[in-house]
């Protein structure tokens, strides 16, 4: 008989971005932009951003193939994204989760609120690891939005 372990955990992360909600939302919806900040270097990324659409990221960690797959359950343009996802290491299911991302106008910028409810299976992933990885992705989004803003400002100045 095998012993299985199930951990349930929820975390919420908030960030403030200087860009308006439409621009922050677009960074989640545009496949090329999202691949840069979400998938990291070297990973394969596919994005079909629509209700019922799928997102898939393939990468490697410690010699194993990591596969992240998500389905978009709800999308409210510029306001909210809800997805369900799995993370597998090689062929072993590690995590099943539901993620909600909210884009709230905040002055001239956006307050992003990301809440993830996860089920972590058999010790293959820990809630703290997922929270840290997600926080790193949101930091990468900051850098991506800063670069896009600088590019737009340069275009305006040159034009």
Automatic annotation (TrEMBL):
InterPro entries per record: ASHA1/2-like_C (IPR013538), START-like_dom_sf (IPR023393)
Domain Activator of Hsp90 ATPase homologue 1/2-like C-terminal: residue ranges? 18-145
Q: Which family does it belong to?
A: Belongs to the AHA1 family.
Specify the protein name.
Polyketide cyclase
**Species in which this protein is naturally found:** Micromonospora costi
